[in-house]
């Protein structure tokens, strides 16, 4: 029967590997290296570059079980012992080959991890102060970047309150109508790549959230914003439904229980009065507190009214936003049709000239 050799289960193999590893590490520390190769990482303990390479190589070959691969790895390790012995002499071919290899594999120099965040924060603050000073001195008049140096893009639409439309519901909730207008004029045709104006598409999400799709693929940040707005709207509707379905019956039962307590307390007070006994301070305090507090059903009703008002405000906002976005689509479509007619006219004029 064939015998299968499992290196990890062989004590002799493990002993040979440990001996080879120790021999390589011992000889690696005796190889003189120039300063630009013997790099140090400030935030980590110093490890000799050749020692790091040896350790990484052993870790890579740790899972090898094939006798062929194990033999090749051990043979390379024994040859590397001879290379390290020869590299102990500076300017030797073996030493030059090791230095050249380490120069190619040198990691990028970075500040310590503990100081990296602080340095980045200081750099941002310095750049922010420079931009602010430039704006105050009148050197930066473009205004095309924000306080963090990112490009500033005008909004697609801007919300504007409609005057004299403020309303107050019977629940004390204040609302006001508003409209959306384009936030920036249309781009000139010379700034559009390809020379053809793309017309955005008006799209409505399942929960009624309108937006414009300028192309595919859709930006992830737009998808995330739509998903969060839809999730928030669905959550409000679910809470309002749960209040009506579950909490309102419980509130009715609580009100019935309190009504029974009030009736029993009043009957007891009447009986004590008829018997000539003094009034109970606890009963009087209870009746006073109950008279001042709203009922459970009224509290639930206020919560439901608030959520419904928020949903109505969102619906009005989506309708106003949809009208504003449709206005942008109509404007861009009209410009695209006008520019298409101009191109056709220029094309016909060119054919006539020929």
How much of the sequence is in beta strands? 5-15%
Query: What order do the SSEs take from the amino end to the carboxyl end, as H and E?
Result: HHHHHEEEEHHH
Q: Mind telling me the C-alpha Rg?
A: 40 Å
Strand order of the largest sheet: 1-2
Shape: flat
Query: What is the quaternary state of this protein?
Result: single chain
Straight-line distance between termini: 90 Å
| SS field, number of helical segments | 8
What would you call the structural class? Answer: mainly alpha
- Poorly predicted spans: none
Mean pLDDT: 80
Task: Please estimate the helix content.
Answer: 55-70%
Largest sheet: 2 strands, antiparallel
For the record, the count of structural domains works out to 2
What's the count of strands? 4
Verbal overview:
There is one protein chain. By secondary structure, the protein is mainly alpha-helical. It has 2 domains: 100 residues, no CATH class; 197 residues, no CATH class. A two-stranded antiparallel ribbon has the order 1-2. Strands 3-4 form a two-stranded antiparallel sheet. The chain is flat. The chain starts with 10 loop residues before the first helix and ends with a helix. The mean pLDDT is 80.
Describe this protein with a few key phrases.
354 residues, mainly alpha, 2 domains, two-stranded antiparallel ribbon, 8 helices, 4 strands
Element layout with pairings:
Elements: H1 11-28, H2 49-60, H3 67-87, H4 93-104, H5 113-136, E1 157-168, E2 174-182, E3 201-204, E4 210-213, H6 220-274, H7 281-292, H8 296-353
Helix pairs in contact: 1-2, 1-3, 3-4, 6-7, 6-8
């Amino acid at each position: 029967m064939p015998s299968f050799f499992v290196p990890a289960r062989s004590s002799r193999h493990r002993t040979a590997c440990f001996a080879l590893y120790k021999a390589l590490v011992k000889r690696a520390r005796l190889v003189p290296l120039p300063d630009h190769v013997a790099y140090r990482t400030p935030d980590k303990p110093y490890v000799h570059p050749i020692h790091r390479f040896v350790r990484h190589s052993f870790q890579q070959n740790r899972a090898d079980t094939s006798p062929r691969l194990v033999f090749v790895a051990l043979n390379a390790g024994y040859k590397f012992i001879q290379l390290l012995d020869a590299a102990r002499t500076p300017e030797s071919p073996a030493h030059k080959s090791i230095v050249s290899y380490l120069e190619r594999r040198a990691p990028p120099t970075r500040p310590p991890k503990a100081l990296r965040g602080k340095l980045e924060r200081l750099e941002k603050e310095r750049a922010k102060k420079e931009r602010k000073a430039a704006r105050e001195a009148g050197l930066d008049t473009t205004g095309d970047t924000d306080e963090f140096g990112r490009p500033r893009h005008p909004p697609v639409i801007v919300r504007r309150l409609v005057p004299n439309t403020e309303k107050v519901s019977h629940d004390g909730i204040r609302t006001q109508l508003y409209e959306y207008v384009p936030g920036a004029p249309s781009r000139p045709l010379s700034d559009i790549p390809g020379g053809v104006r793309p017309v955005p598409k008006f799209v409505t999400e399942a929960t009624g959230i309108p937006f414009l799709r300028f192309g595919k693929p859709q930006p992830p940040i737009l998808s995330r914003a739509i998903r969060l707005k839809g999730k928030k709207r669905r959550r409000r509707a679910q809470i309002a439904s749960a209040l009506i379905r579950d909490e309102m019956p419980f509130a009715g039962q609580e009100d019935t229980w309190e009504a029974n307590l009030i009736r029993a307390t009043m009957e007891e007070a009447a009986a004590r009065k008829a018997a000539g006994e003094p009034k109970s301070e606890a009963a009087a305090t209870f009746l006073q507190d109950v008279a001042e507090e709203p009922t459970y059903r009224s509290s639930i009703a206020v919560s439901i009214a608030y959520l419904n008002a928020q949903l109505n405000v969102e619906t009005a906002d989506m309708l106003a936003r949809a009208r504003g976005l449709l206005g942008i689509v109509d404007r861009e479509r009209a410009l695209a049709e006008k520019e298409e007619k101009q191109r056709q006219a220029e094309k016909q004029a060119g054919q006539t000239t020929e």
